[in-house]
Write a structure and sequence with these properties.
Blueprint lengths: L1 H7 L4 H39 L4 H16 L1 E9 L5 E7 L3 H7 L7 H8 L4 E3 L21 E8 L2 E11 L6 H45 L6 H12 L4 E7 L5 E9 L9 E3 L4 H8 L3 E3 L18 E11 L2 E11 L7 H65 L4 H28 L9 H16 L4 E5 L7 H22 L4 E8 L2 E8 L13 H10 L3 E6 L5 E8 L2
Helix pairs in contact: 2-3, 2-6, 3-6, 6-7, 6-9, 7-9, 9-10, 11-12, 12-13
């Protein structure tokens, strides 16, 4: 019985070999399943790593590191595609900072990198050098052999490309390709979430700054709103330099009022022409401008490029109703990531606060000017109604005394001289009243205003402000005569500045009957030989044109007196 059972348990040799093979195959399959399961777990860990962070910079680096670990690659990179179709960012793994610095600037998206940008489909190569699209490596770049590249998509948008090189197995397999493609799909979702998160954070910062600036606009003290706007803009927009400039009165130039960032000290106070510039284009089109590369030859330059190497730039006109008041410009250095349309939209809303600040500043200035003019008008009325009337009364009293004393009495002559002094003082007070009342009482462009402006212009050259007085209907003279009178005053004061070495000068302009007289007196050393003095012949010729004359003689109290007369037709 035992012998029969022993015979039943025997297996023939051939079937036994087949069973061993089946068992070996089963073990191999189990090992494959285990390996695949391990790689799937690695893929899940990689996806978890990539999607577990909302910081865009961290997400991008995690993608490259996870892809290298998943596919067993020595080197990895993620190239972010910019608005111009080139590489905007290039995050690398396996190349340290020192080596990256020796290699130089970012890749320009040529060769295999460019091929994946042009045709966003996976590329897997055993040897890069064997592919005709390969453009080689720059100096100091480490040698690389096997290659795997897949696009990173955000819905229908190609965000960038994932590049892997030098597989630990000698070459990348089809399985590696499938796993990296799956990772890239998850990476696209992670990048999309990180971008939305970053935009929401930036938008929150813009809104917070807007509230802060709105409060400052309503305050009478504190930081200048324009300065605050520029300071917050460079911080929130992550720009390297920002400037806020106001248009010149003629609209042809831009004067930089506020600037922050690299080279900003060289910008403040400078005037730039608007023609053929980005600021000029923004003013002309009255639309914000966004450029990926400020060195693009097809676009005009920015004034910021005079102090920093230009890269991405935003230019925003400050509009008030139908007028453009100024320009807010933000720039990043060449090689940095570009501003987005979302950045432009938020910055444009922020720039509107600058316009409000300018409007409020104008309103406050106008209010203060009204108060000042009212105060000046009160002073002018007091001078006219009280001081001048009292001086007139004193002058009439002194004239009565001089008449009693007689023309030959020395005391009477001295009294008459004091009467003339009082008349001169009254004319000067009237000139002061005219200046106090300002443009509201001025005949803009009249002779009074022109002479006052000449005196102001020449004050720096003279070293003092000349005293100006008027008598009679000065502003009613004809335009041609007014031009010659203005030229006469300018020439005479210029000669005082050049030759007289005077400490004071007076300009008296009077219209009596049909004669206009200009008297310019100084207390200096005189003009010397007046025949050679510059412009004297011109003064005489102008006077002769109007039937008058011009004399130059020593002043009674020392110095020089120029008297210019013309007939009023």
């Amino acid at each position: 019985m035992d012998a029969d059972r022993s015979a039943a348990l025997r297996f023939p040799d051939v079937p036994k070999l087949e069973l061993d093979e089946l068992i070996d195959q089963l073990v191999d399959r189990a090992q494959d399943v285990k390996r695949v399961q391990g790689r799937l777990r690695a893929l899940l860990r990689a996806i978890e790593t990539v999607t577990g962070n909302l910081s865009l910079e961290s997400v991008l680096r995690n993608i490259v590191e996870a892809a290298c670990e998943l596919a067993g690659a020595k080197y990895g990179a993620l190239g972010v595609i910019g608005g111009d179709g080139g590489l905007e960012q290039f995050i690398t793994v396996g190349i340290d900072d020192d080596l990256a610095g020796r290699i130089g600037h970012l890749p320009e998206g040529k060769g295999l990198l460019g091929a994946l940008i042009t045709d966003p489909h996976p590329i897997r190569l055993e040897h890069m050098a064997d592919d005709g699209r390969s453009a080689g490596f720059p100096l100091h770049h480490p040698p690389m052999d096997s290659f795997l590249g897949v696009p990173v998509r955000i819905r229908a948008e190609i965000y960038g490309n994932l590049y892997l090189a030098d597989s630990a197995n000698g070459q990348f397999s089809a399985e590696d390709e499938e796993l990296v493609i799956a990772l890239a799909m998850a990476a696209g979702t992670a990048v999309s979430n990180a971008r939305l998160f970053r935009e929401s954070q930036v938008q929150q910062r813009w809104l917070s700054a807007s509230v802060e600036i709105g409060a400052q606009l309503l305050a009478a003290t504190g930081e200048d709103p324009l300065r605050m706007i520029a300071r917050r803009a460079i911080d929130i927009a992550d720009a390297d330099i920002v400037s806020l400039g106001l248009l010149t009165p003629d609209g042809a130039g831009l004067v930089i009022e506020v600037a922050f960032g690299e080279g900003s000290d060289d910008l403040v106070g400078r005037r730039f022409g608007l023609r053929d510039t980005l600021a000029g284009r923004a003013v002309e089109q009255r639309q914000p401008l966004l450029l990926v590369d400020g060195t693009d030859q097809d676009t005009p330059p920015s004034h910021l490029s005079t102090v920093i190497e230009p890269g991405p730039v935003m230019v925003l006109p400050l509009q008030s109703n139908d007028n453009v008041r100024g320009v807010l410009s933000l720039l990043r250095r060449r090689g940095r990531r570009a501003f987005t349309s979302s950045d432009l939209a938020m910055a444009a809303g922020f720039a509107a606060h600058a316009t409000v600040a300018l409007e409020l500043a104008d309103s406050r200035s106008a209010e203060q000017r009204v108060v000042l003019l009212e105060d000046r008008d009160r002073i002018a009325r007091d001078l006219h109604d009280h001081v001048i009337q009292e001086l007139f009364a004193i002058g009439l009293g002194l004239e009565s005394v001089a008449a009693v004393l007689g023309p030959d009495n020395p005391v009477g002559e001295r009294v008459q001289q004091r009467v003339e002094d009082i008349d001169r003082t009254i004319r000067r007070i009237r000139t002061s009243i005219f200046a106090l009342r300002g443009p509201a009482d001025m005949n803009l462009g009249g002779l009074r205003q022109r002479i006052l402006e000449i005196a102001t212009d020449l004050t720096p050259a003279l070293g003092f402000a000349p005293h100006v007085s008027f008598a009679g209907l000065v502003d009613l003279v004809a335009e041609q005569l007014a031009d010659d009178v203005a030229a006469c005053v300018r020439e005479a004061l210029t000669n005082v500045a050049k030759h007289a070495r005077a400490a004071a000068a007076t300009v008296d302009v009077s219209v009596v009957s049909n004669e206009l007289t200009v008297t310019v007196t100084d207390n200096g050393v005189g003009l010397g030989n007046t025949d050679r003095a510059s412009g004297i012949a011109n003064l005489k010729a102008r006077a002769a044109t109007h039937g008058g004359y011009c004399t130059i003689e020593p002043a009674p109290a020392g110095g020089t007196m120029v008297k210019w007369k013309a007939l009023i037709s």
